[in-house]
Every structure is written in C-alpha cells, then in structure tokens.
Fold these 2 entries.
Entry 1:
Amino acid sequence: MFVACHLTILTVSMVTPKLPANLTDLPEYQLRVSPKAKHMRLSVSLDKGLEVVVPENFDHRRILEFLVQKRSWIEKALQQVDQKREYLAAQSPDRLPETIYLGAIAETWQVEYLSANSKFITAKEQKGQKILVTGNVENIEAGKALLRQWLNRKAQKELIPWLRKVSVAARLPYRQTSVRGQKTLWASCSSSKNISLNFKLLFLEPDAVNYVFIHELCHTIHMNHSAKFWALVSKYEPNYLKLDRSLNQAWQIIPAWV
Ligand SMILES: [Zn+2]
C-alpha cells in the first residue's frame, strides 16, 4: 500500500562557529519534520546516516541539547553503521563469489569460473563441493542469477526434507512446499497450509532454520501471531524469542551477490 508522504527532509549542518567546544564535534544529521511524531527521536541508518525526527512546531533549539545527551548512543550507532558498510563493501556485490558457505548445512563450496566463447553460462557441481561455472562469465548479473538458481535447487534438496522431518516430529502436517527467493520473508505459510521457503535460509545457523520451520508449521494451526500462536511455538522451541530476534540480524550473513 502506498501512503502519501507528508514528510519533509532538510539537511542541516551541525557545525557553526558559535557552539561551545563540546558541541562542535557532533556529527552532521538530517532533520525530518513529521506531523505523526509525538516526541523527538533519533535514528541511524546506512542510507540516511543520523536522522533527527521532530514533531511539527518543535523548538529546534532543543535538538542540540538532545544530541549532546545522546552522544554516546549516536557514536555507537554510527560505528555499527560503518561496520555494516565495511561488511557490504567486503562482500563485493559486483563480483562473483569464489566460495559459498552454507551455514545451515555446514557446507563450503568452491566456485571456479571458466571463460568460454559463448553467449550462455552454465553451472555444474563437481566432486569435492566444487561448482564449475562455464561460458560468458564476464556477465556478472547472469552469473549471479545462475548461482541463485543453484541455491534454489540446493534448498529444494536440503530444506524440503528437513521441513518434512520437523513436521513429522512435531505432528504439524502441511500440504505443499515450494522454494523461492523472497526479498523480505524467510518463509511463509498460506491458509491452505502451503509453506514457502526462502533459499537464503541456507545461509543461516541450523537452529535459526529449525525455528523458522517450527514458526511456519505453527501457522498451520494459528494463522496469526496471537498469544496462542506463541504459546504453541514455545512448546516446540523454548528458545524462540532469542531465535526470532536473531533473524533480524541475519541479513548480515547473506552475501551481497545473493
Ligand atoms: Zn509468522
């Protein structure tokens, strides 16, 4: 659903000569006036950096005070964003991977590329957990798409039988299952009890994958996130809260090329 945007963004530089010494080294921030905001708040993100959100008709002089108060939180958050940025850069999204580590099944695959005079590009599994990619390997996007297809097949082979086992052990049957490469979901369960799995689950820790399976299988009983649903989940996975939270961080494990 698209919601019309009421938000205005203006960039303000923090550094003005009149400020006392302890204020001059505060980071730059973007100011966003939001009619929906009730209080002043801060956010730090990879794309926007430090953002200060204030309600309409807000006394802007209070912003400085707030920034000084929250200085240590801001520094920590900005450091984390820097780490993310470095991590993503190290992943080189513009290059094809030489190794693929699938944490869920503890397998490391080496990828070799063989340039051939062809329009096409193919991938073949070889002995010793090797993938040989042959053809137009200069076409990075085609190479990435090919490796994603390989991941999809791998997930069908590894994740579907695993889900079946968990389902049988928990006595929570489902109808059908499919594997996709969803952008925002690890998995989903429809009202007709069809479960769809994301092949990116292959990169997670086994505990996290197991939790995702339990979570979706419990949706075959409760199609919501009610207290009853969570009570059922906790019956099968007492550590569900920690695992659920770990999924929010798990994007970090997914290589950029995926
Ligand atoms: Zn759910």
Entry 2:
Amino acid sequence: MPKLISLSADLKEAFQHLILQRTGLVIRPSDRDSFAKKISMRMDAVNFISPQDYYLLLESRTQESKEEWQNLVALLTNNESYFFRDKEQIHLLQNHILPKIIQKKQIEKTIRICSAGCSTGEEPYSLAIMLQELIPNYKQWQLSVFGIDINQIAINSARKAIYSPWSFRGVSEVIKGQYFQQVNQQYQLEPRIKNMVQFHLVNLVQDEFPFNDIDLFICRNVFIYFNAPAITKVVNKIYHALNPDGYLLTGHAELSGQNLSQFHRLSFSQSLIYQRRKEGEKQQEIRQPLTVKELTIPQFKPIKPAKTLPKPITVKTDPVPVKKQPIISPSPIKKEPVKPTVNKLLETAKNFIEQERYQAALEQFQQILDINSNHTDAAYWIAQIYANQGRYQDAILYCERLLKIDSLAIAPHYLLARIAEETGKLEEAKYLLKKIIYLDPNSVAAYLDLTHIYTQEGDERRAIKMYQESLNILQMLPPETPIVERGNLTASQLLLQLS
Ligand SMILES: C[S@@+](CC[C@H](N)C(=O)[O-])C[C@H]1O[C@@H](n2cnc3c(N)ncnc32)[C@H](O)[C@@H]1O
C-alpha cells in the first residue's frame, strides 16, 4: 500500500489547476480525497517523496513527463463504455443522420466519422457496424471511423477489439453473433469491422487532430468531466475539423450554456444534434417532425383508479366477449363489449401502421369512431398520426376529444406537450409536462422532456434537477417496468442509457 502523502491546500489546488489546463478534466469536490490518493499512488510508483517534485515533473515538457501523464490520466479518467450506448441516439443515427450522410456521399463514396473520447472502442466500432449495415455495397466505399482518446491503455485495448459480456449490455444476440466470435468468455470483433477503425492517442484539449474533413463527430460522456472553457476549446476544434454541413453529437445536455452559434441546432425527439453552419449562413433551430414510430403508445392510465375511471361506455352492439386489444394495454374503458368489426378494424389499422400506410390506417380508425365515438385507442391513434404528419391542429382536436372522455388521461396530455414542444411553444409544453407530473409523479418521460426543454433554454440548474429526478424514479421503479413513451424500454434499460 502506498503511504498517503498529505497535500497542502495550495498544492492540491496547483495539481488540480495543472490537470484542468492540460486535460480539461475537473476534479470535483466529492472526488478530492480519492484524487489525493491517486497522486500518492503515482508518486509511490515513480519513487517520489516530495509532492512538489512530482508537480514539477508533471509541469515539465520532457519525455519522462509525457510518460507520467499517461499513467496519471489512466487513474483520472472514467472509461466506462458499451456497444450501441444510448438507444435513442443510436436510433437517431441509424434512421436519420447516417442515411443523410450516405445519401449526400453517393457519388464521392467516402465517409469519415470520429468518436472523440472513444475509450476502449465500443462507440467507434458500433458506428462502423451501423455503416456496414446501412451500405449494402460498402466494399465500394471508403469508410473511415477514427477513435481518439487521451488514455493509452484504453486505446491499446480498443485496438485489440476483444470484449467481455459487460460491453454488450442491451445488444441483441443477432448483432453479437453476426460481428463477434466468442473466444472463451470473451468476444473478438470480426476483422471486416475492426479494419474500418483507426485509433489515435489524442488529448482533445491540447493536441491537433490527426485528420480533417469529418462528416460526423460523436463526443459523448466526455464533456461532463470538463470545465466550460475546455469544452469551448474542443468544440471549436471539432468545428474546424468538420466538413461543411457535418454533424456533432454529444451526450444529452453536455453543451448546455455553450455558445454554439457556429452550428445549426437540429432538434429530434431523441436528441439534439448540431450541424456545422456555413460561413455567412444564419443560424437555424430546426425541429424535426414527430414520427409515429418514435411516438409509442402511452397507456390511458387512470392515476387514481377509484376516482378517475372513465364512465363505462355503452356500445349498441351484441355483447361479445372482449378480446385483449393488441395495441394499447386495456384500461377499463376498453373492456366494454364491442362489435367484432371494431376488433377487425383495429387489427387492420395496426397492420397498415406496420406497413407505414398511415392514410389507410386513418380510415380504419375513423370507421371505428363511427361505430363507437368514444373509442379512446382509435382517437389517440388518429391524433398521433396527425401529429406525425404535421397536422398539429387536427391532432390537438383529437387530444381534446380524448380529454373530454378522461380529463386525467396522461397520453393526450403527453402528445399535446410534444406538439407544443415541436411548435416552439415551450411555456405551454412545460405547463403540460408539469401537469403530467402532478397527475403521475413517476412520469419519467415528462421529467426527461423537461430536461430537454430546460437544456434548450440554457437553464442548466433546472435541467440537471429534472434529469436527476428521472434517474431517481428509474432507480425506484421495479427494473422490468416498461416506460411506454420511450419505446417500452424497461426502467433498468433506460437507466443504463441515461447514466
Ligand atoms: C466515459 S468515456 C466515454 C466513452 C464513449 N464516448 C461512450 O460514451 O461510451 C470518457 C472517455 O473520455 C476520455 N477523455 C477524457 N479526457 C479526454 C481528453 N482531454 N482528450 C481525449 N479523451 C479524453 C477518457 O479517457 C474516456 O475514455
């Protein structure tokens, strides 16, 4: 065990300042004890007795100093990573951003992506897999993914591309089976993916990037450890290394409070993404339309069942046993006997939705409402399809219709909040989301949406509070609880993504 040296307050501060200057890393008050231990460990390892001498070694620009920085950085950085981390951002990349880049590069057939702060390689390799999946004739393309990180040990491990099961949290067995070979208890990545990725030891704050003309930078779960000036410096470097119209994706809320006037802000339901602005071009805030696939069906959940159950609806049909509705989990309103044709219509409508034939689905839902004007599932689907088509006024009318049936139903409130958000009515969105929290204090989706809005508004304090609240709830919920507004991810899966 190394002897724990005691650092004077001044010296502690000097070490922290030097580390911040050289790496951007902030030593938080809660980490200060362990920080002193780490300094002790390193002094012990290189046989230094005086902390002042160790400080001078770090401050110098010798080869010995460079090597020691490597050892110290390995103790100071958090290298947590896993494949396809943050499902929502992965969905955004797979369905919007990468297809856009691929389309733009059809003639040139060259794509260059960088994972900055790539740790042990899970993130750049996930990007390489996505590119190969999206480009059937990928062999005719020049696809380059760069992984850069300050930590030499992480880079060495990334280059080996052998992973333990822990790196595959939430990854489907199909992907694992397709791209990895099991060797004992570990998984070796296929050479055709491995060879697409080049790793470089790069300190984001100090070093020049060894490349340029990048189409997409991903820098996630890195800036959370930096102070604001270091973030500004790195974002500026990223800007210059990006192609015109190139993208920057960071972790949620990691750029709050930054001046990002060089970028357009593209606001998707899953995440904000920044796009390099051409010189002289006006900055734009671009909101992407809602998509039905992204908007999963929230349940019409009575908050306090005893008081808030909607009145039973009498349907003038021959009573038949009710089959469970496949689309939305039934609430008592849906357990009413219904005409078989309603079930059939619902089934057909659902098939149309799966085929993305929304107009045809709309007609089926309308027919259901002709039979039963209080059919909440049908009305909700119509509202959702209209919202997806940008017909917000029509969507709002259907939400209001639903709220007349059950004024405390969460789903129409949530859809109204999403529409308000999409149309820039942030005050209204906040009001609705707070109302949802009042009705259902465990609404993780409402807390996460509020996080997103406060982040957009630069209100970091509130954004962090909302984010913390959503984590607290997720930790409290039974792990298997589905979070319907988030694609039915379970509470534990969502927690993994967010933390
Ligand atoms: C928590 S990991 C994130 C890995 C990956 N981006 C992800 O989200 O799964 C943070 C990484 O940032 C790296 N890092 C921290 N400071 C850095 C710096 N100044 N330059 C380059 N990388 C840095 C760390 O070494 C670590 O590997």
